[in-house]
Amino acid sequence: MSSKHLFKRLCLFVILSATAALPLLARLVGNHRIPSSSSAEQAFPGLAFSSTTDRYLLVWEEGAAGSRSVRGALLDRFGGVIGSSFEISLSTDVGEKFSAAVAWKEDIDQFLVVWEQATSVSNHDVVSRLVSSGGNLGTRTFVENDAFDQRSPRVAADPLATGKFLVVWQDARVSPIGVFVRFVNEDGSLDSAGRIALVSNGKTPDVAQNSINGGWELVYDRDAADNTAGIFSAALTPGGAPGIERRLSPLPNDPANPQPNPGLPRVTFNAGAPAGGRYLAVWQASATRGFVWSHQINADGTLFEFNKGASEPNALYPSAAASTVAGHPDRALIPFVRHSTDELNGAFATGVSVPAGSTILSYYHPVQWPGLSGGANSSGSGTGVAYNPNHLEYLMAWAYDVGSGKHNIAVRVIQSSYDTAQADYLTPGRGPSSLAVFRPSSRMWYWRSLDGIQTGRTSNPYGLSTDVPLRGCYLWGGGYANVTVFRPSTGTWYASNNNDGFNNSSVPFGTSGDIPVVGDFDGNGAGEYAVFRPSSGTWFLDNTWSPNAVWKSVAFGAAGDTPVPADYDGDGNTDVAVFRPSVGLWYVTFDLSGNVHFATAFGAPGDIPVPADYDGDGKADVAVYRPSNGTWYVRRSTGGEVSVQFGTSGDIPVASDYDGDGVADMAVFRPSSGTWYFSLSTGSRIAVQFGASGDIPLTRFPSF
Fold first, then answer.
1. Which of 153, 144, 84 is nearest to 119 (CA)?
2. N or C: which end of the chain has fewer CB within 10 A?
3. Cα–Cα distance between 118 and 69 in angstroms, integer?
4. C-alpha closest to that of 651 among 633, 679, 676, 634
5. How many Å apart are CA 430 and CA 699, to the nearest integer?
6. Would you put residue 611 in left (φ > 0), alpha (ψ -120 to 50) or beta?
7. Other beta carbons within 10 Å of 18
8. Whether residue 201 has pLDDT greater than 80
């Protein structure tokens, strides 16, 4: 699979961009998952990713105050648990354990987990333990456990064989409070150099490693009665020696950027940024509520750009992750917890971009409102995030309200993408498809996720009963559409970019007899509208949402052909293609030239074409559904053919990836009962009643 296709197919939270003009946004993937369901309170997740084994280690604190422990779980790239969760801290150790953090070291494929352990009210220790990517636990080690009070540990790793882990914490051995670090060897033992004093006035530190040129960047919070309080950074040498201290946050009395009590800084290294990469520091502007702010830092520690990282004024507990490999997209994800007295709590993400002076891109939450009620999120749930360089995506973690005042850690994949950030289940993309219907009798639209957690509908009718309902991201003036219809009588497209049915645009593009289609024909990550004109066998494509603005016309097909646009070669672009029912032939052009690059005989008269990626290789497979016997026939691009009897006469095939595992699922909608039937790629079969007689089912087009 090409790197381009990996980016597109497995492409969305924040997002850093080297080219501010491009809409570098993000996409939700799959439904949220709870790796370890528990009746005990779970909070403050941490995440790290092993690119060697393509899995994450999720860590969190669990239990009521006074009896907390540190637990973990290995997750696959979709957030599914590998095996079961396990305790990382030692239950025999005195005191509760909390504030866990984790880092992964590439050359040994090991994670180092660090946490704070309260041996007494005024004496907390810093503890560490190795965890292999297979879940094997190493020896528990006290990084620092003398008579002073050590708190808020964080950890980073040097990926080289000659490198080590670096643990940082706040320490009461200096007044008012200081920041210290210590190296931990690859076998989990402590480096003989001992602790290194960095700052004599700092707390809640974090550290990141420059994976390109070595060295480290430290960020920390400074309390002070005078005007010196704020968020600071300092570059560290590969050996841990501190460099020049630099202020990141504005002065406390700066009227242009009020930050009365900034805190909880986090830092990550963005290897995809130019000039040898850059660090990204984020923090909350207030201890109670405020904006999330960010500052990009050059690889040498000098300051690059100051941003407001989230325009949400009720943002707390930010975290950050960015591209870990040079040459990957120049972007990062900044999750945070949102709290408001008049709105529900949720976990959000936002984006900043480079070069300097560019504005924030967007932000939105990784789960819909259901399940996010209650106020506990605002009291300190925290967020966690890690970048997956194998698939150019992120996994985000947060405390999810499971009812009765309890929270469990939930995770969700966020793909880095040129695409819309609308958290709407009518938006196409590489995540799970939703079940959706257009009801011509009322002109209402309804949708839900497969698990039923997310549901939605338009608040007002949209379209006419004779319109052709479509799904996709349709650009007009820089916006995106949630619901779209094509009106055959006038050849006009109508789209609304929200769910009220009013904020809409209309564009004439097509004529009576045209067949509307949607696809990402130019490879920019957003769906373009297009029509296939059977009378001339011509495709007309537009990517500007401008009246009659033909971006490309392609002579490809003949009268009687069925348009079947999809990505058949795995390059991330939708290919123009037709299925000729009269003879069961497929024709595909890969470059919009009109030349036939692929042709195959597969199907028979009466078959319905259902191309989709049924084998998960990133390429659409040639496939048909035969209504006469309710059988699916698939010719896999990876080789071989399969047939599956699933459906009955009158069913409408609606193949798509409903469970978010990257593989298309066979599915049918039964109009007589308004029931959806799924034959999932995992092997299970389920039925969901959603719709009514006369409804038109909608699903994500296989070209995305």
1. 144
2. N
3. 11
4. 676
5. 13
6. beta
7. 15
8. yes
